Amino acid sequence: MLAFGLGTVLAQKPDDGQGYKPLAETDSLLVRLREWSKKIPNVKCDFRQEKRAALLLNASVASGRFYYRNDASVRFTYEQPERLVLIVRPDSLLMEMDGKRTEIPLKGKGLKRGNPLMAEMQKLVRASLGGDLQAVRGQYGVEYASNGRLLRIVFIPKNQMVKQMLSRVSIYMEQESFRVEELVIQESNGDTLSYRFSNHVESQELPGELFTLGRVRK
């Protein structure tokens, strides 16, 4: 995939210090991403989460299993340091911890939503893995760059309310397979939340009960 010669569409500009160069042409990329999303509807993998904040001496680390279904449902099953289930659906956030289950609506006006940060993350994950980056172009500036192996897509919010929460969100994908390796959320207060993904399993059915708080199969 992506065998359209990214080297020929890279803008001839200095890299950004991390080896990434901006893409001068993105139409072919968007077409390929849409094609890929139709072939690989579901994904499950391991994840490692790191939270870095000014008030933390060291990064806070957690890990577990990640599931994505092509209806834009996302599930994080945290195994370490403690058990936690977090499910992000198109209209709600479900959470289970210590036997307590909570449902928070994601739809609403501005910051009155139950968890606006998760609502924005769900929107951007859906746009990326669903192959429809054009869906967020009016709300986010989108920048594309490549280092030869990874494709980096950066979302920069335009909406003032979203800017109160987010500075930018970066998604790193393997250039040939479109597998997501890392998601980095930079909050407006300077904190950073990152997810690294590994051991991907793709194109398999994921049971609907995975995205509820009922009994699930792993």
From TrEMBL:
<protein>
    <recommendedName>
        <fullName>Outer membrane lipoprotein carrier protein LolA</fullName>
    </recommendedName>
</protein>
<keyword id="KW-0732">Signal</keyword>
<dbReference type="Pfam" id="PF03548">
    <property type="entry name" value="LolA"/>
</dbReference>
<dbReference type="InterPro" id="IPR029046">
    <property type="entry name" value="LolA/LolB/LppX"/>
</dbReference>
<dbReference type="InterPro" id="IPR004564">
    <property type="entry name" value="OM_lipoprot_carrier_LolA-like"/>
</dbReference>
